[in-house]
Write a structure and sequence with these properties.
Blueprint lengths: L2 E4 L10 H15 L13 H17 L5 H14 L4 H13 L9 E5 L5 E7 L2 E7 L5 E6 L3 E4 L3 H44 L1
Helix pairs in contact: 2-5
């Protein structure tokens, strides 16, 4: 096994996972203030409230996870949860282009100053590269046939799980409230019609 490092002076902020972890700390500080409904997720209260608001709007329109919600979630994930894959690709593409033939054997490396490791193979049929974060999750992969592909990290999976659960609960509650209100309105109309005939 060969380990070699690649310099990354220009890419010191590629992995903003720490921002997501800080959000968890902010939430727990806010929770201690004694608000009515405590936020038990690792997301900040403002994000949880925005998700709930979007779920209620979606319920009113009978649209589950509409375009605005998907756009908001993906934007937040890219800024606060995901590693900056585009910077990683810009950093690693020159390495791929200048890679030496390894007869298909894996070449392992570590990115200096960043929490990423990688494996690269250069054989007769082309090149492949796999980039892993500090948890061992595959962040990116490259092959000559398919180019660059993203892999989902545990932090991203946790984020999607939490946001989906928050949205689902708020959407379901809003729909149940709408249904209860429409049943009440129907009962009131029916009783007033009944009284008018009496």
């Amino acid at each position: 096994m060969i380990m070699r490092s690649i310099g990354t002076e220009r890419f010191s902020s590629i992995n903003p996972h720490t921002t997501y972890k800080k959000a968890s700390t902010e939430t727990s500080k806010t929770d201690k203030s004694g608000s009515e409904k405590k936020n038990t997720s690792s997301l900040p209260d403002r994000v949880v409230n925005k998700i709930k608001e979007m779920a209620q709007d979606g319920a009113a329109k009978s649209v589950y996870m509409g375009k605005d919600y998907i756009s908001f979630i993906n934007s937040y994930k890219k800024q606060h949860v995901s590693p900056d894959r585009s910077k990683l690709i810009r950093l690693l593409t020159p390495t791929l282009l200048t890679a030496k033939y390894t007869n298909g054997l894996p070449f392992f490396f570590r990115l200096i100053g960043l929490p990423f490791t990688g494996k690269m193979c250069v054989g007769a049929t082309g090149s492949s590269m796999f980039i892993y974060d500090e948890n061992g999750d595959e962040v990116l992969s490259y092959s000559t046939e398919s180019g660059w592909k993203e892999g989902q990290t545990r932090a991203e999976a946790q984020f999607y799980g939490e946001t989906t659960a928050i949205y689902y609960k708020a959407y379901k509650a809003a729909r149940e409230e709408m249904k209860a209100n429409s049943t009440q309105n129907y009962d009131m109309v029916a009783s007033s019609t009944f009284n008018a005939r009496a």
